[in-house]
């Protein structure tokens, strides 16, 4: 399999753990960490080096993307200035936000 990220075996995570893992891997904070390492591909080496919030620090996640992102930023205990910095790294986000108003 080379340097590709391994998949998870079914049943190895509870439903809650799987939901939290999916929320993390789909978050801007995770995407930002991957791009900081100069990659656009999520490899095993990158996931091994990623910073993740401690188990149990993620509140229940909702279907609203804004609520999920806020919960993840809170779990990482990010200061507002860093959150703003992370979001400015995604130039198409402004266009997406404007089209959904």
Task: Summarize this structure as a short list of keywords or feature phrases.
53% helix; mainly alpha; 101 residues
3D architecture notes:
With 101 residues, the protein is mainly α. It has one domain (15-99). It has six helices and no strands. It is globular.
Short description:
This protein is mainly alpha-helical. It has helices at 15-25, 28-36, 44-49, 65-75, 80-88, 92-99. It has one domain (15-99).
> If you average the pLDDT, what whole number results?
76
Structural class of the secondary elements?
A: mainly alpha
Report the uncertain regions.
none
Question: Please, how many domains?
Answer: 1
- Biggest sheet record: none
Supply the number of helical segments.
Answer: 6
Radius of gyration: 14 Å
**Quantity of strands, as a count:** 0
The backbone outline, from C-alpha atoms, is globular
Question: What's the arrangement of secondary structure elements?
Answer:
Layout: H1 15-25, H2 28-36, H3 44-49, H4 65-75, H5 80-88, H6 92-99
